[in-house]
Design goal:
The protein is an alpha/beta fold. Helix 3 crosses helix 9 and helix 4 packs parallel to helix 5. It is globular and about 60 Å long. 41% of the residues are buried.
């Protein structure tokens, strides 16, 4: 079969090559890929920044945002049948306390593997094999946009855990702020609007220029502000008490700005990942004082386990009922597998690029 592979650690080594088609065992499922989404992780692995091949191999099949159709099931498999539309989770458990409890996204010792990223082949190929417990079924009506489920789960986890944390008090959030208008930020806006919160999204794009992102946010009832006109430190003057902030930029400056504008009893959920060794100056005493006196919480969230995939499927259904056709418009470019190189070139004008297999 055809697959896109890299030599981990070697810049721009991604290539389309022939690899053996996997054969399912008695307790496994063979899935034919329909589409695979591309994101910054895939590009950074191709740049040689990280990535790990499976034990005993020199190459890694990349891709972790999948949509496929069951082609064959092993003799001991129940609950799946040929033709089922499925998405696979990404992380596979190690042996720690949380991994054994089905929460590998909370792994304690880092001995997990991740499909297409760390020690296990991914989905940028014509077929893959997996165990049923790592497959999530989607309704046939979601075929057009089901490949978006994996990035959606990152948002589902962070927001669900924000509410779980706030069980420490009576909390009825009214105002949410999303920092960053990429794929994660847009999904965060939809999830929060679906929950009934007033949502403001802040991004670098100008608000007075027509764009697909602004159109989608407007349709969902979210406000958009450009950071060039409305700096983050000034936002409380406009918005009042901000109950929940989702940070999805990966900028350390934005993270510390967000800490300073978070409202009383508020939660700041960090989803963006910062790279490099940047050093900035912050009013540390004031931040600490306000976090303590304001009963504020700052926490990070990464990856997602099966229950957030299932929650994402449910919310996709909500979105389609409230805003029909909106999710399909998130996919701004579709390419054949052979044109993977174009897809790996990150361009800000796109929301999501997918390869169709």
């Amino acid at each position: 079969m055809k697959a896109v592979t890299v030599l981990p650690g070697k810049p721009r080594s991604a290539t389309l090559r022939d690899v053996p088609t996997p054969t399912p065992g008695r307790g496994e499922v063979l899935v034919r890929l329909i589409a695979v989404g591309l994101d910054g992780t895939d590009a950074e692995i191709d740049e040689g920044l990280y990535g790990e091949a499976p034990p005993g191999e020199d190459h890694l099949i990349i891709g972790h945002e999948s949509l496929g159709q069951v082609e064959r099931v092993g003799a001991e498999v129940t609950g799946f049948a040929p033709g089922d539309l499925v998405v696979a989770t990404v992380r596979r458990p190690g042996g720690c306390l949380n991994c054994r409890a089905g929460e590998s996204d909370m792994c304690l010792d880092g001995r997990y593997t991740e499909r297409g990223i760390k020690g296990r082949h991914g989905f940028m190929a014509e077929h893959y094999v997996d165990a049923p417990e790592f497959l999530v079924r989607l309704p046939p009506a979601f075929r057009e946009f089901g490949v978006l489920l994996e990035p959606m789960t990152i948002v589902e986890k962070g927001i669900a855990q924000s509410f779980e944390i706030q069980r420490r008090m009576r909390w009825e959030p009214q105002r949410a702020l999303v920092l960053g208008a990429g794929t994660i930020g847009l999904f965060a806006a939809l999830v929060l609007r679906n929950l009934g919160l007033g949502v403001t999204v802040v991004g670098r794009e100008r608000a007075d220029v027509s764009s697909l992102k602004l159109e989608l946010l407007k349709r969902a009832g979210a406000q958009y502000l450009s950071s060039t006109v409305h700096p983050i430190p000034q936002l409380p003057e406009m918005l009042g008490n901000v109950d929940l902030i989702v940070e999805a930029t990966g900028s350390s400056q934005v993270v510390f700005d967000a800490m300073q504008i978070l409202g009383t009893n508020g939660v700041l959920c960090l989803m963006g990942i910062t790279g490099g060794t940047k050093v900035i100056s912050v009013p540390a005493d004031r931040i600490n004082l306000e976090v303590v006196l304001g009963n504020k919480v700052v926490f990070g969230s990464v990856n997602a386990n099966r229950r957030y995939f299932e929650l994402g499927v449910r919310h996709f259904g909500d979105f389609e009922r409230k805003w029909p056709g909106l999710l399909s418009r998130f996919i701004t470019k579709r390419l054949p597998l052979e044109e993977f190189r174009e897809g790996l070139e990150r361009r800000r004008e796109h929301i999501k690029i997918v390869l169709e297999v």
